[in-house]
Request: fold
Amino acid sequence: MSDDAAEAVWVEKAQAGSAEAFGRLVRLHQQGLRAFLRRLSGNWADADDLAQESFVLAWTALARFQPGRSFRAWLFGIGWRKFREGRRSWARLLRRELAVAALAETVATPNPDLRLDLAAATHSLPPEQRAAVLLCLAGGFSHAEAAEVLALPLGTVKSHVTRGREKLLAALGETRAGEMLSGVAS
Reply:
């Protein structure tokens, strides 16, 4: 049985009330969701709280999940909405922007300065653009999956990824950015 088919069975069982099946779904997706939220927010503790809240909301809203959709995209969409709801003020956002970014973990470069530069440049992007870049370039999501997660039109996501990548290239310089982005590009 393929991973997608197995996941569909777990979703069906979870919708029927199986906490064990939902636990399997949590174990399958918790690392990816936490990593996405950590990169997005720049604050590990807040991101972990958001991930936990996302799983609780997913459990309570599971009856509304439509078979045939991507559970991963649905779950990440919940996480994205939780992130947006969690931003209470621009001051809080500014503190997050200045925090050390977790994106450095995913960049395959031995030079920590390069990772930090990429993280800082990524966090300078507007939140929706940053989310699209993180999902598509660092998270392995297709543009269509990212559009579903972010509840944005496909063209908007493609624009966000293109413009975000261009901004990263401009901020980091073509040579350094190319070296760093090669570790996260799709």
